[in-house]
Amino acid sequence: MNTDFAPRPSVLDRVGALLAGVRDWLDDRGKWAWIVAMILGFIACWPLGFAILGYMIWSKRMFSCRHRHHHHHHHRGHGHGRGYAASTGNTAFDAYREETLKRLEDEHREFLDFLQKLREAKDKAEFDQFMQGRKEQPAEPQAGPAAPQA
């Protein structure tokens, strides 16, 4: 008997992989593919249509442009400059866009650093207040054997 084999994926694993593949396929085609799938689901079996509708609302695919967002990250780095997006053909606008995005990134980083320093200052103030409170508390007598009274 050979015990050096990989465990066979369960039925749920295979169904999950199949559904993930269908989800990715629909995402690649955009929101309209999801809407068509939902309509076909209602035609084939109304609970299936409701399940697709529920999933679209739950995963926010119904109200967002997830398809375009997905492709933006997929193609990132294929454009000019820092890779934010492909060239528009207008070099002045592309330069302005790159400069503005770099400035926004720098401001965002500075803001995050400021927030970190603010949190550290708040933590230090709370700790100092705690230590001051400990110093001001009178020392409690140790609970030990009672001394005999004379």
TrEMBL record:
Query: What parts of the sequence cross the membrane?
Result: 32-58
Q: Name the lineage.
A: Bacteria, Pseudomonadati, Pseudomonadota, Alphaproteobacteria, Rhodobacterales
Q: Which residue intervals are annotated with compositional bias (Low complexity) in the record?
A: 139-150
What spans are recorded as compositionally biased (Basic and acidic residues)? 126-138
The ranges of region (Disordered) come to 126-150
Entry coiled-coil feature ranges: none
Q: What's this protein's name?
A: DUF2852 domain-containing protein
Write the record's keywords in alphabetical order, separated by commas: Membrane, Transmembrane, Transmembrane helix
Record keyword Chaperone present:
no
